[in-house]
Design a protein that fits this description.
The chain is of the alpha/beta class. It has 2 domains: 8-143 and 280-322, Metallo-beta-lactamase, Chain A, CATH 3.60.15; 149-276, Metallo-hydrolase/oxidoreductase (Rossmann fold, 3-Layer(aba) Sandwich), CATH 3.40.50.10710. The protein has 7 helices and 18 strands. The longest helix is centred in the middle third of the chain and has 17 residues, at 149-165. It is globular and about 65 Å long. The N and C termini lie far apart (49 Å). The structure holds zinc ion.
């Protein structure tokens, strides 16, 4: 093994000096290997990007049409100054990848964001053996335990039907890239018409062009009828307060789709009363099982409950260290009280 670490944190992000490339840099660099196209992982301005082939359209739409993007098939490797780099499914959103880097027998895997639960819109998470594993820790607390997604979709269907019975539209807040498409692929379109915010429809089109099957969706317009309104499921990004744009059409119910819905009601992170705990991130148990499956000796913990998870991993015998970056924000405090959702 080489003595210098294969990666180190630099001003622009996680850098591989030997290979002269960055993983998910937060500044413009020469060569960027991108785990996925969410804004906190993919930043404009780099000279060239590597990304997993299924996510290339989405990344292009975010980086601009002149961005030089070199797609790699999952498992395909590229030599970057003697470092063998390949991408492997992370199961987070379409095209999300773990970055495997190997030099003189030393292997690092930088996982980006990942989840283990199945998702019809992207390739399933693949454990990759390595010596050093960089893991996120967004939901690395025992309170976060996802139920099977079929149970969550059944609850969403019940909620949608009960709103229909009251002639109320059903508004779901969900992130435009990834979460919304997973929702659309999982809901039963026979229940009623599905409308989406324009930002979500833009991503839907990229997914469809990438071969992902999604039900028919429409962007509401002035021609939307009161009957459609009362039977509809309407997806909007969390930042939108879009329902307020249709006061003439009647009442609505709203709910948020997020892993944070496992937090107790009344928590500052619970901005709406109703919620469905569907997440694009691994829950606490899934993080532990994914980490164990890598066989890694050294775990670097970033993005989430860093301190708490480092302590837990050390207690389990891992050589765990924190990896704090400017992107790491302090997560909500978790109390002992379980969520009621
Ligand atoms: Zn992400």
């Amino acid at each position: 093994m080489s003595r210098d670490p294969l990666f180190k944190l630099s001003e622009a992000g996680l850098f591989c000096p030997r290979g002269a490339f960055y993983v998910d840099p937060w500044g413009a660099v020469s060569t960027a290997v991108i785990t996925h196209a969410h804004a906190d992982h993919a930043v404009k301005g780099s000279r060239r990007y590597f990304t997993a082939e299924p996510g290339r359209r989405v990344l292009w739409s975010r980086m601009g049409q002149h961005a030089k993007i070199e797609p790699l098939a999952f498992g395909q490797s590229v030599d970057l100054n003697g470092v063998k780099v390949s991408l492997h499914p992370a199961g987070h959103i379409l095209g999300s990848a773990q970055v495997r880097a190997e030099y003189k027998g030393e292997v690092w895997v930088i996982s980006g964001d990942y989840k283990v639960a199945p998702d019809a819109t992207c390739a399933a998470f693949e454990p990759v053996r390595c010596h050093t594993f960089v893991t996120e820790s967004t939901f690395a607390q025992p309170i976060f335990q996802w139920e099977p997604q079929q149970a969550t979709f059944a609850k969403i269907h019940d909620w949608w039907r009960s709103n229909q019975a009251l002639n109320r539209a059903s508004f779901l807040y969900s992130y435009a890239l990834g979460k919304s498409q997973r929702l659309l692929a999982g809901v039963d379109p026979s229940i009623g018409p599905i409308f989406v915010h324009r930002d979500i429809e833009t991503v839907n089109e990229l997914y469809r062009q990438s071969g992902v099957t999604l039900p028919k969706t429409r962007v509401p317009n002035a021609g939307m009828t009161i009957e459609e309104w009362g039977h509809s499921l309407i997806l909007q990004p969390p930042s939108a307060r879009w329902a307020q744009g249709f006061p003439h059409l009647g009442h609505f119910a709203s709910a948020f789709v997020s892993g944070w819905m496992m937090l107790p009601q009344g928590s500052q992170s619970r901005r709406v009363q109703e919620g469905f705990p569907l997440s694009d991130h691994a829950d606490h148990k899934e993080l532990l099982s994914a980490i164990t499956a890598t066989g890694a000796e050294r775990i670097m913990v970033t993005h989430g409950y860093i301190d708490e998870f480092v302590i837990e991993l050390k207690s389990l015998g891992f050589d765990a260290v924190p990896m704090r970056t400017p992107r790491c924000r302090k997560p909500p405090r978790v109390t002992e009280q379980p969520a009621v959702v």
